[in-house]
Design a protein that fits this description.
There is one protein chain. With 199 residues, the chain is an alpha/beta fold. The protein has two domains: 3-148; 158-199, no CATH class. The chain is 52% helix and 13% strand. The chain is built from seven helices and four strands. The chain has helices at residues 3-13, 15-25, 43-57, 74-84, 104-117, 135-148, 165-192; strands spanning 30-36, 63-69, 88-92, 122-127. A four-stranded parallel sheet has the order 3-2-1-4, with helices on both faces. Strand 2, helix 4 and strand 3 (88-92) form a beta-alpha-beta unit. Helix 1 (3-13) packs across helix 2. The longest helix has 28 residues, at 165-192. The protein is elongated and about 85 Å long.
Length: 199
């Protein structure tokens, strides 16, 4: 993406705030993107995990947080700035903001655009609703890009032994009952109405 294309993308996001924040920051080695749509119940846990990950694994790297808010509210922006403390935060309001539903594609595009404007060597997109996030998530997603020159890192989700067991058992039971009831109805039709014969 050329500098002109990046400028055009920012013009669609929220030109004055984004451009001013990017100019204040200058450059960043690592950009952490958070997408929200209104209030964030897990914000404190996510911010703590990001700050701990940056302190533990990327202390020598310049970092910035790009907050893409689909349903912008001054309280949400203030809460994000307070939660991240001295970390540099770039607030972005994407085109078409105001919807209650989060547009992930637009949020990722916004974070990547701002990351490119900041000259980031690595960009990590995190879900702001995951309170179970730890500092190791940031290390696992950003370290291969920054330290080993990987081009793309995707998370691998591990299922535990009994994950989904209840759901699978219920689906199997309901499906078996449905098939059995249909079979019994077919037999009853033949028994109740002698004109019906199966060949």
């Amino acid at each position: 993406m050329t500098a002109r294309a990046a400028e055009a993308a920012v013009a669609r996001l929220s030109p004055d705030e984004v451009r001013a924040a990017v100019e204040r920051i200058g450059t960043a080695d690592l950009v952490v993107g958070l997408a929200t749509s209104g209030p964030i119940p897990a914000l404190a846990a996510v911010a703590a995990a990001v700050r701990a990950g940056l302190d533990a694994h990327f202390s020598g790297q310049a970092a910035a947080v790009v907050h893409v808010d689909q349903a912008p509210a001054e309280a949400t922006t203030a809460a994000v700035a307070a939660a991240f403390g001295d970390l540099r935060v770039v607030p972005v309001t994407p085109a078409g903001a105001g919807d209650d539903e989060l547009d992930w594609a637009g949020a990722v595009r916004s974070v990547l655009t701002v990351g490119r404007m900041l000259g980031a060597r690595a960009t990590v997109m995190l879900n702001a609703d995951l309170s179970s996030m730890t500092a190791e998530w940031l290390r696992g997603l950003a370290a291969p890009v920054l330290k080993e020159d990987y081009g793309l890192v995707l998370p691998l989700y591990r299922r535990y032994r009994y994950d989904g067991t209840l759901t699978q058992a219920l689906v199997l039971l309901v499906a078996a009952i449905f098939i059995l009831v249909n079979f019994m109805m077919d037999l009853m039709y033949a028994w109740l109405d002698p004109r019906i014969r199966y060949r």
